[in-house]
Amino acid sequence: MEQSFPLLSQSAEDEVDHAYVGLEKLPKRAWSSASTALHYILPTISFLHSALPRFLQIGGLKSRKEKHHSTAWLDALRGYAACVVVKFHLFNFSQREIFHQPILHAFEAGRGSVEVFFVISGYVLSVRVLKMIRNQQAAPLLNGLASATFRRFLRLYVPTAFATLLVALALQVGLVHIDKLWKPTLYEQLADWMSDTIYASDPFHDVLGWWINQGYRTKYAYQLWTIPLEFRGSMALFLFLLGSCKLTTRGRMVLSWIVIVCCYRWQAHYVACFLAGMCIADVSISFPPEQPEGWLQLPQHQMDTNAALHGRREKWIGLARKGGLIFMFIMGLFFLSVPADTGTNGPWPFQYVSMLTPSYYGGDVKEYFWLSIGAILLVLSLEYSPTLQVPLRWSFSLYLGEISFGIYAIHILCNWILYEPYLKPWQADSLGDSIWADWLVASIMYFVVFVAADYFTRVDTQIVTLGRWLQNRLFVQWE
C-alpha cells in the first residue's frame, strides 16, 4: 500500500509562512518610515528652495516668462535703469575718463535713469486707459481712473515707508552708522522714523523736479526723492486723461504736445516725461509696432491704391525705418549722457549742447532738459524696434524688471551696511583702484543688491495686494 508523503514538512511550511510574513510586513514598515521622513523632508526642501532669491532657484528665471505681457520690455528697461542708479550711487567709476565720454556716460550717470522712470510710468499708467477712451467705454474708463488714483498713493508711499523702516531698524541694531540719523532708543528711533514718514508723504509739499542737496525727501533714504515726483506726475497724467477723454485721438495728441511744451517752459520736465510716455502709448495704439511699417505707415484712406510697397521700394523704406530708429536710439543715449554742466568744460560735442540749452534752464535744472529728451527718444526708439528690444526680453532682463523698484529702494541700505564700511576699505587696502578691482567689488555689490531687492519685492507684492483688497472693500458698485 502506497503511502503518500507531503512534499513539504510542517516545519518547512512554517518556514515558508515566516518568510512570507517577513517579506510582506518588513517592507511595509520600512516604507512607512520612509514616507514619514519624506513627508517632512520634501516640504522643507521646497520651502528652502522657494526662500532662495528667484535668480538662484532652479528654473527661477524662466518660471514666469510666459506670463509677461507685451510691454514687459518696459519693466526690463526700468530694471536696467535702476542698475545704473546703483552704479551711480555706489561706485567710483566716474573717476575714469572713459566714463565721461558721450553715450558711455549714460551708463554711469543715474539722473538720466530717473527721467527714463518717468517716461515708462507715463506709458504704463496710460496705455490701458487710452484703449478704453478709443473704444468709448465710459464705465470701465471711470472705474480704471478711480482705481488708479485711489491706489497710487499707497503704491508709492507704503513701500517707501517700509524701505525707510528697514534703515531705522538697521541703525538701532548697529548695522548702519550714521550719527545724524541714529537715536539712543528704539522708541525714539521709531518715533523719528514715523515723523519723517509723515513729513515725506505730504502730497501738497512744494517740490522741485530735480535733485538738490536740501530738497524735499525722506532723510532715511535720499534716493527716494523721486517718489513725490512720481506721485505728482501720475496725478497730472490722470487729470489730463480725464480732461481729454472726449477729444478725438488727433485732438488729444495735439493738446498733449502743447502741454508738454508748456511743461518744459515751466521747468516741470518730469510732467512732460509722463505725458510723453502717454503720447508714445497713444501713437503705438494707432500704429502698432507689429505692423510692417509701424508708425511710418500712412492711414489707409491716405494711401494711393497703387502704392503698395513691394520689392526694392519696400526694402529701402524698411532699411530707412530701421536706420532712423537706430539713430534715434543713439541720440537718446547721447542726450542721456549729458553731464551736469551740460558739457561746458566736457568732451566734444557737449559744448554745443550747452550752447543750445534754453536760457530759462540754468543752475541745477540745466542738465534735466536734455536728460528728459534723451529718455523720450530712447523709449520711442525701443517701442518700434523689435531688434533693440531683444536684450530686454531675456529672462534675466524680465526678472530685473520685476525687482526694479526693490533695486531702487534698497540699494542705499546695502551701501551703508556692506560697501562703505567693508568693501570700499578692502578694495583700497588690498585690491587697489584698477578697473578689475572695480568690477570685482561691483559684482559683489550687485549680487547683494539683487538678493535684497528680491526679498523686498515679495513684501512689495503684498502691498499691491493690500491696495487691491482695500479697493474691493471700499469701492461701491454703481448700477
Automatic annotation (TrEMBL):
Claim: Membrane is one of the keywords in the record: yes
One of the record's GO molecular function terms: acyltransferase activity, transferring groups other than amino-acyl groups
Coiled coil feature spans: none
Transmembrane segments: 114-133, 154-178, 220-243, 323-340, 368-384, 396-419, 439-456
Keywords (A to Z) from UniProt: Membrane, Transmembrane, Transmembrane helix
Keyword Transmembrane helix: yes
Pfam families (alphabetical): Acyl_transf_3
InterPro entries: Acyl_transf_3_dom, Acyltransferase_3
Acyltransferase domain location: 72-456
Name of the protein: Acyltransferase 3 domain-containing protein
